[in-house]
Amino acid sequence: MSIASFPEGFVWGVSTSAFQIEGATSADGRGPSIWDTFSADRAEACDHYHRYSEDVRLMKDLGMAAYRFSVSWPRVFPEGTGKANQAGLDFYDRLLDELLAAGITPYATLYHWDLPQALEDAGGWPSRDTAHRFADYAVAVHEKLGDRVDTWFTVNEPWVAAFLGYGSGGHAPGRAFAAEAFTSAHHMLLAHGLGVRALRAAGASKAGAVLNISPVMTPAQVSDLGRALSPEDAEAVARIDALANRQFLDPILRGAYPADLLPVIERAAGLGHVHDGDLEIISEPIDVLGVNYYTPLVVQAQPSEPADPAFPGSAGVLFCTIPTAVTAMGWPIVPNGLSLVLRRLSEEYPETELLVTENGADFVDVVTGDGIHDPDRISFIEEHLRALRTAVEDGARVRGYLVWTLLDNLEWADGYQRKFGLVHVDFATQRRRPKDSALWYRDVIRRNGLTETRPRRPTLETVAARARVSRATVSRVVNGEASVSPEVRTAVMRAVTELGYVPNAAARSLATRRTNTVALVLSVPRQGGDQLTAAVVQYVTSMLEGAGKQMTLMLADTAESHRRIVQHVEARLVDGVVLLPADRGDTLAERLSRTGVPVVLLGKPAIASLVPYVDVDNAGGAAAATELLLAQGRRHIGMVCGPMDLVAVRDRLSGHREALRRAGRQPLLAVADLTRASGAAATRQLLGDHPGLDAVFAATDQLAIGALRAAREVGRRVPEDLAVVGFDDVDAASATAPELTTVRVPVADQALALARLLLSRLEGRHTTSVVLPARLVVRESA
Ligand code: FCB
User: Fold this and answer.
1) Which residues does the entry assign to the active site, renumbered to this chain (predicted)?
2) Peptide bond connecting 738 to the previous residue in cis, omega within 30 degrees of 0
3) Does the structure show a pLDDT above 80 at 614?
């Protein structure tokens, strides 16, 4: 087995931050931070404050050489100023002793976003004084821990802390003023400079800052970096690069703000906050720059676009969604972005030594009794490590790599739903279990390199053996064939989950032949009318064409056309298929997925399988509609259901039923087909059977429009006597009288998700189905 190895002495480890893991928010005199105030989630996090020994042991078992943690400022200065709280510092004292005993080198970050609330109340980062309080804090921490910390980082990602905290308001403290974002950024830079000076004066050996550096590119450059830009796009790229990257790099490493950024700052905030001498402090030489990399910023010029509040001064720049595989966070996966960043930094700031201080991903893990399977995270880290290695070969000065992060944790405004950890945490019990990625990373560290061949994934054979069935049966189940008994289906699906099996059709078709063509297969008729279909065709086509694919549109309207389409795909004339199936169960989806060519579906299929699909939360939308009616005091709510063989209609009915059950009420149903006339007829029937009826929830807008007509005919006023709610939010829904209250199905998002799903499959990635939220749109009819 040959090995792609890393330079000798390359530093391997993980990063964490105090607020995200420690918990114990009032233990030993800790004061509140802005995140305690801002966060809506349970503050216990991973209870690392009490479980640090176990966590250090875990790291030791995984072979980590380095651990980057952050010190919680409000533990040390509960009131922001005054005397340091020794009990708080003692925790880090214990942690350091434990780390050193385990042979792990500690890297300490002083500010990872948890400003003492008292300092926020005194003005927060827009106030210059906060930078001086930071320097005091740095001195106090160094005094206690300085003898054991190898490298000090002052601030973590000041762009995020300033522009999300004070610009867009998406992060704590939740303020949204462009001027404050710029003054905060400057004061964080000043805090960094004052901090480095204070640390050095106290005898610290190595100090630096941690910046999130995102390469900025246009959509076309994502796949073709060398692509030349129009002057307008080049200007857009430069402006965002100045805001996101150079605003921090240049003051720290060159002692000046970028010339093209100064007018942008001045327009938003004036320049009065930048005092003489500040930049000299900020550019105090550093020993290492921490680089956090997750994803690029993709932009293009678009004159009509208003400024994004997180990027004040960005008017005329569109932040683009690109058709690449994404993490569960929705962040595009672009490993080459890491080489780009590292190479660029080493070219433009050649004196600076680099450490990748964060890189990692949120994915949906498969949690089973025999382990936590996260093949996506392994691929993500592996691809980024390969990119890093390329940059090192090209001369980038990178001294190590720290994964974000050790434990699943409290991901800021997103709470506990995000899973970035190498180690799974069960938040009910605080039990820790290393995921497959942790064990894989341990091996990487052990051999200081990657194997040239990827680890073997479970195959069809492995699944068949585990489920004690034939390979053909496994294949039938994963492709959604109806001919398998429910028991066998359950056994196979269990084996699939336990083993983390991913059908590797895409890999096969990659290995054989590439046509660069994708078939968009339209089965007719579709429920919900032509609007969704038209939009999906338009969006999917433009996204996939944008990704360099040729599109072939195929109509599946007869048995003969089905046969021809299957033949076409079997002959490998396409690389992948986007199927917009007719809603009534037909066999086209399963026949296509048996060809081994990647297929993705619009809408959940009637039979569970591994063929990934994109759908909306039909049950959730129907429950929201029903709850609205209940909250309005409606007591006799009828539902007009469309044909019951449609999966979406069945899901809408079950959401409606569930909401009624919670409210202790019985459903009243009438079944229709898809037409307005049948919606009217079903409504007349409901009104006849239940004279007290005061609301109708219809499974589609077309049926709801029929219900409005029936109400008019029998002299019921809408909404006074009868409330009516539909589903889909078709164009006609806002043109009825009264305008229809309905549930919006996000058409463009569905199309986007479908295109992404297919691209992920074409890249041979593991993909899970996507269910998008459906939102209630309240108009006049209820
Ligand atoms: C970085 C933060 C870190 C974590 C990751 C996902 O921006 O520094 O705390 O939230 O993103």
Assistant:
1) 157, 358
2) yes
3) yes
Q: What's the token pair of residue 467?
A: 């489920």
Q: How far is the CA of 352 from the centre of ligand 1 (A)?
A: 23
CA 767 from centre of chain: 14
Secondary structure letter of residue 308 according to DSSP: P
Query: Which of 111, 155, 356, 404 is the best mutation target for the ligand 1 pocket, counting ligand atoms within 8 Å of the beta carbon and taking the most?
Result: 404
What are the phi and psi torsion angles at 45 (to 5°)?
50, -130
pLDDT digits (tens, 9 = 90+) for 221-269: 987 888 899 999 999 999 999 999 999 999 999 999 999 999 999 999 9
Integer Cα distance of 4 and 388 in angstroms? 11
| Closest residue to atom 4 of ligand 1, CA basis | 411
pLDDT tens column, 74-132: 999 999 999 999 999 999 999 999 999 999 999 999 999 999 999 999 999 999 999 99
**Contact assessment for residue 631 and residue 658, using Cβ atoms and an 8 Å cutoff:** no
By DSSP bridging, strand 742-744 and strand 775-777 are antiparallel
pTM for the model stands at 0.67
Of 313, 275, 305, whose CA–CA distance to 179 is shortest? 313
Supply the DSSP string of 354-416, one letter for each residue: EEEEE-------EEETTEEE-HHHHHHHHHHHHHHHHHHHTT--EEEEEEE-SB---BGGGBT
* Residues 278, 272 contacting (CB under 8 angstroms): no
* Distant-in-sequence, close-in-space partners of 365: CB < 8 Å, separation ≥ 6: 372, 373, 374, 377, 419, 424, 435
In this predicted structure, what is the pLDDT of residue 510? 41
Residue identified by tokens 């759908």 is 615
Q: 637: how many CB neighbours lie within 10 A of its CB? A: 26
156 lines ligand 1 (CB under 6 A): yes
Burial (0-12, 13-18, 19+ Cβ within 10 Å), 51: buried
Residues sharing a CB contact under 8 Å with residue 595, sequence separation 6 or more, in sequence order: 566, 569, 570
In the chain the first and final C-alpha atoms are separated, in Å, by 67
How many other C-beta atoms lie within 10 A of the C-beta of residue 479?
22
481 an active-site residue? no
- Give the bridge partners for 207, in sequence order: 152
Run of H or E including 473? helix 471-478
- Give the number of residues written for the chain: 782
In DSSP notation, 704-757 reads HHHHHHHHHHTT--TTTT-EEE-SB--GGGGSSSSPPBEEE--HHHHHHHHHHH
Picking from 349, 343, 345, 322, the residue whose alpha carbon sits closest to that of residue 334 is: 322
∠ CA(582), CA(739), CA(702), 5° rounding?
20
For 331, the 3-state DSSP assignment is coil
Token pair 């996090």 is found at 45
Mutate to test the pocket of ligand 1, among 33, 41, 70, 358 (most ligand atoms within 8 A of CB): 358
